[in-house]
Amino acid sequence: MTDTPILDAFEHMRLPLLIVGPRGTIRRANEAANELFACHDTGLPGRKITELLPVASIDELHAYIEPPACEAVIKQMVAQTCCGATVPLVVHMTAWTDPSGDLNHTLALRDISDEVQADLVSQAELLRANSAITGARIGVFEYNAVDDTVIVSDVWRELLGLERDDTQDLQLRWRARVHPDDLAAALRPVDLCLSGAAARASSEHRYHSGDGGQWRWFRSDISVAKRDAKGAVTRVVGALTDITERKAIENDLRKSEERFKSAFDSATTGKAIVGLDGRWLRINPAISAMLGYTEEEILSTNFQALTHPDDLDVDLDNLKRLTAGEIENYQIEKRYLRRDGEVVWGLLSVVAIKDSEGRPEQYLSQIVDITEQRRLTELKSEFVATVSHELRTPLTSVLGALSLLSFMDSEPLSDEAQRLLYIAQENGKRLHTLVNDILDFEKFSVGRVHFAFSQHKVQRLVEEAIMTNMNSADKYNVRFNSIGEDREALCYVDARRFQQVMTNLLENAAKFAAEGSEVDVRIEPQPTEIRISVTNSGDAIPSEFRDKIFKPFSQAESSTTRERGGTGLGLNITKQIVEKSGGRIGFDSGKDGKTTFWFTVPRKEPSAMLQD
């Protein structure tokens, strides 16, 4: 070790090297060793090796060498640097004797900090993987094709209901657990991997629990783990997962789809699934029967092509709002074009089928053929109009004649005759009101009501209504009382329809007011509308009747109502007039016997007018 070239080589080698003397003192250290142990200033020579390595003496270090060998590799030894830090090392140690006969040791050192860190990461990942596999209840197994042996995890045993200390043949136990009808399917993935036909394969099959009672579904995923020098597969690994719940969900979904398909296809009303572009994606036989086209012909086109041109814009506007999420569904009456050229009326109901993010991807439509219903409705309207007209014309003449008789003084009538004349006049008026209500109701039903909006002073309209209906006040022995401070408040209404609303509300209030009481008519101007209310004191509206009070032909089932008569159409007509005039209507009825019907009229001209 005294040759200068050898010393130069020793000093300049990049591998950290130490020469330790017989007493454990470091005799030489190259620059790489000084750098490893952070001893640049003082250097390592002269230090005891026990200060750096975890050994008590040079003899303990030498004990790593097993005779007759003269060298040893210490795979992992945690050394301590001069600054107190630790560093993991692989130490290659060689023992040799110098010319004086003293035993020396040369230590070649390799820093394995990166390898240790990588190993720690790997172990952590393996631990996480094992935890994940265990937590996910995945049973792992390995099959060695060379010696025909199987190694399984504890979770695999638990899934198949086998005890951990069960030493019986696992392959036989496994076969006994597989459903007889599924055994071939369960073995196929292993056969595919062993034969080299596939690197990975899977299957789904049933196992029964340990008592042989309940069958559960499992999935096996097999992959090749090792091959021999010739490429033949010698080992495969697999994972076993319980998928019973997933199978149950799939089964429920399948049943649900079958029920939907059955209901869809067998429905007597037309049902269709339509794409976002309007193309028919699926229809049931009822649509083909209704439109006269075959299923293939309809599926080759879109709903726009089969819609009457005059109804297309309304349908598309509703569809646009549905797609934008402004409405949840819509229902309209529209016309379809049959193959034979005839027009079919359909009641169309549409909802959006949305994806997981709530975006529409298809539409579900239901079409009810209402052609015959529309025809009958038109016939009924014509019949009601004809009958009402034929009744109203002669009735007007009869009422005129009765009125003339009541004013004749040249030939005074007896008291009995006058009583009968009065009864005839009252019944004639009731019949006239009934005919007018039926005609108005029919007009509203088919949308044939005309409104002529203009500006009016509300106070004047209300006073006119009170004067016009004084007979009702006298008849039921009540008094109408107008309350309003702003006599100049203006509104936009159809004056004739306004009077019709007031007449209905005043007559209704007088009819059910306590005898001798007052009926208050209050006018309350508000920023965009004016509120008119009619309040009487009497019996409260029955709670069971309140939800249907504005419905046609609705009357409270009480002797008082029946005795005082009525068609049950007045409030329904009133509601339609108010709403079509741009206002709102409602009522309040308390336990104190006070009942208030109120409605509003706009202070600005309504934006839309109804036309005939």
TrEMBL record:
Q: Name one GO molecular function term.
A: phosphorelay sensor kinase activity
Where does the Histidine kinase domain lie?
Answer: 386-605
Q: Which CDD domains match?
A: HisKA (cd00082), PAS (cd00130)
- Per UniProt, residues of the PAC domain are 201-255, 330-382
- Give the PAS domain ranges: 256-326
Q: What are the boundaries of the signal sequence?
A: none
Keywords on record: Kinase, Phosphoprotein, Transferase, Two-component regulatory system
* Superkingdom of the source species: Bacteria
User: What reaction is this protein's catalytic activity?
Assistant: ATP + protein L-histidine = ADP + protein N-phospho-L-histidine
Write down the InterPro entries for this protein, in alphabetical order.
HATPase_C_sf, HATPase_dom, His_kinase_dom, HisK_dim/P_dom, HisK_dim/P_sf, PAC, PAS, PAS-assoc_C
Assigned EC number: 2.7.13.3
State the Gene3D superfamilies in the record. 1.10.287.130, 2.10.70.100, Histidine kinase-like ATPase, C-terminal domain, PAS domain
One Pfam family hit: PAS_3
Write the protein's name. Answer: histidine kinase
